[in-house]
Design brief:
Blueprint: H1 18-26, E1 29-34, H2 42-58, E2 61-67, H3 71-76, H4 80-90, H5 96-107, E3 112-114, H6 120-135, E4 139-144, H7 152-162, E5 166-169, H8 176-181, E6 185-190, H9 198-214, E7 217-223, H10 227-232, H11 236-246, H12 252-263, E8 268-270, H13 279-302, H14 308-320, H15 337-348, H16 361-367
Helix pairs in contact: 1-2, 2-5, 7-13, 9-12, 13-15, 14-15
């Protein structure tokens, strides 16, 4: 991710610099680290106010980090924040009232509360995952051999994209290592010719490395091959690896180890043949499972958002009530209604064959007249 970082020091009385305003405008998401001294800085408050304005007018995504401060102190302008705002008012700054309003509104947003409950590295991991989820939502990397590109893998790719999932495949122009790193999970379609491709084996090795170090989710599909042949490097795979070794490739031993490891993972075994199910039925099952896995991952991230779980559970209980058809969320702008709706949608959407999240439809209709 490209990150703009506030390193500018503004002198007393200076307005938010053009460079900072342009940086906020060019960003898709802003992270505000609210510490005990945050409100003592006029430049920080000017940034916050600019960010909140863009949130109201441009649906800019805002993630507040309550760093060793109580979110209620932010919302109520109490604690150290009261002292800071009192000082600004005593200096006769005309922007203070707007700063106070925007600051209190940030305190009401779902965010991450960092206390001394766990290492900061754990919190940082969740913050990065949240940002990735918002900026690159539901990414899947699809690794496939040439022998399935025009049939099974092509149909699987189309089915995934039809659900709104963004899919990187190894035919994309982006470097596969970057695509795998940006993805929530990887699907490996292990076909007879898969191991004959050096590129496929390099992808598989990269994917397995991320599984070991970052708990990357892997879904193997054994397409018209026996999983035991993958585990034992048998069948057509033995010939492929023998060819690679005869070419003196130094990576072959590592590829072998990772290939064997993939064969031990749980996945789908599509045998083909007369008595097996159609590919389309397998694809439906795979897509449904992936939606559940992505939903589970998004739920683990939303668990760290302050004040989100109780509201989410309340909405889910209302949805489950008999004859419940339409639910409305009412409240002032900027308090997290859309975020809450998004979390609820991710929780239950995989249960429906057809689904759609329409965001800010009324505003778009009004804009178009």
């Amino acid at each position: 991710m490209n990150v703009f970082f506030d390193e500018e020091k503004l002198e007393r009385g200076e307005q938010l610099s053009l460079a900072l305003s342009q940086a906020i405008s060019a960003s898709d998401l802003s992270i505000i680290i609210l510490s005990a001294d945050y409100a003592s800085s006029k430049s920080c408050l000017a940034e916050l106010s600019d960010i909140m304005h863009r949130r109201r007018t441009r649906q800019h995504i805002v993630l507040p980090i309550f760093y060793h401060v109580d979110p209620s102190d932010v919302q109520n302008l109490s604690g150290s924040f009261k002292t800071s705002f009192d000082d600004h008012e005593s200096n006769g700054l005309r922007q203070v009232q707007q700063w106070k309003k925007d600051f209190a509104q940030v305190g009401s947003l779902p965010g991450i509360h960092i206390e001394d409950d766990k290492p900061e590295t754990d919190h940082i991991k969740h913050i990065v995952e949240y940002a990735m989820q918002k900026l690159m939502k539901h990414q899947v990397f699809l690794s496939l051999g040439e022998d399935t590109r025009l049939n099974f893998s092509s149909h699987l790719l189309k089915a995934l994209e039809c659900t709104g999932i963004n899919v990187f495949s190894n035919k994309a122009e982006i470097q596969f290592s970057q695509a795998i790193a940006a993805s929530n999970l990887s699907i490996i379609v292990l076909s007879k010719d898969y191991a004959s491709s050096e590129s496929c084996l390099a992808q598989l090795s990269d994917i397995m490395g991320r599984k070991r170090t970052q708990k990357h989710i892997i879904i193997p599909i054994f397409y018209h091959v026996d999983p035991s042949d993958v585990r034992n490097l048998g069948g057509s795979f033995k010939a492929s690896f023998d060819d690679h070794e005869s070419n003196g490739l130094c990576q072959v031993q590592k590829w072998k180890e990772d290939f064997v490891e993939v064969g031990k993972l749980k996945g789908w075994h599509i045998e083909g043949g007369k008595f097996d199910r159609p590919d389309t039925e397998y694809i439906k099952d795979v897509v449904r499972y992936i939606l559940k896995m992505l939903d589970r991952k998004s739920r683990s991230i939303s668990d760290d958002l302050v004040g989100m779980d109780d509201q989410k559970e309340m909405i889910l209980r209302l949805i489950e009530q008999k004859d419940s058809r339409v639910l409305g969320l009412w409240g002032m702008g900027g308090i997290g209604k859309t975020t809450l709706a998004d979390v609820v949608y991710n929780e239950i959407s995989y249960e429906f064959q057809s689904r759609c999240f329409l965001q800010n439809v009324r505003e778009e209709i009004e804009k178009k007249g």
